[in-house]
Amino acid sequence: MSYILKLLKNNFLLALLSFMKSKNWVNRQKNDQFVKKAKQLGYINRAAFKLEEIEQKYKIIENSKEILELGSSPGGWTQVILNYNPKTNITCFDLLDMKMNNKRITFYREDFLKYNFINFKTKFDLILSDVAPNTTGHQSTDHLRISQLIYEVIDRLEIILNNQGSFIFKIWKGEEEKQIIKILKKKFDKVEYFKPKSSRQESSEIFILSRGFRLNEE
Ligand SMILES: C[S@@+](CC[C@H](N)C(=O)[O-])C[C@H]1O[C@@H](n2cnc3c(N)ncnc32)[C@H](O)[C@@H]1O
Question: Rounded to an integer, what distance in angstroms lies between the CA atom of residue 72 and that of residue 148?
Fold first, then answer.
C-alpha cells in the first residue's frame, strides 16, 4: 500500500512539475518581443529572426541559387530565405510537415540521415541546419545528440556542397564544439560563431558559420 502511495505521490509531483514548466513557457511566449513581432510580420515563428539576423550581417542567402535546409519545419527559416531571395531553389528536409508551400520549395518529409544525397542532380551553394533532436533536459546529453547530427552533415559535405559554398548550423554549446570547429577549419576558409539577439540569452544555442568550402581538400 505504501508503495502505491509513493508511486502516486511521485507521479503527482512529475505532473505538477511539467504543468509549471508549460505555464512558464506560455508566460514567456506572451511577453516575448520576438513572438509579438513574428505575429505582426506574418512569420510562422520567432526562429525566423535568427536567420534574418544572420542574413542581414553576412548576406549569404541573397547570393545562393540552391539552398538545402535541414530541419525546416514549420518553415520560419524558409520564409526568410524566400524574403531575401525569392528566386532561389530550396530543398527542405524534416520529420514533420511544413506550414510553407511555394513553387521554389521541394520538401522531403523524412529523416535526412536516411536519404541518399547522391540522388541529387545539383549540389548546393548553402546548407542551413536548424535540426534539433528531441531534448532530454540534460544539457550534455542534448549537446552530444545535436553534435552527432552535425557530424553526420559534415560527413556528407563532399557530396552535397559546392566548392566555395557555405554551411550554417545551430548547435547547443558543449564539449564537442572544439572538435567540430577543428574539422570545419580544415574544410572551410572561414569559420565563426554568431549569437543572434533573437536567440534567448539563457539558451545555450549558438550558430556556427562556415564559409568558403574547399572541395576535396583536407
Ligand atoms: C528547431 S526546429 C526547426 C525550425 C525551423 N528552422 C523553422 O524556422 O521553422 C528543428 C526541426 O528539426 C527536425 N529534425 C530533427 N531531426 C531530424 C532529422 N533526422 N531529419 C529531419 N528533420 C529532423 C525536427 O522535426 C524539427 O522540426
Answer: 18
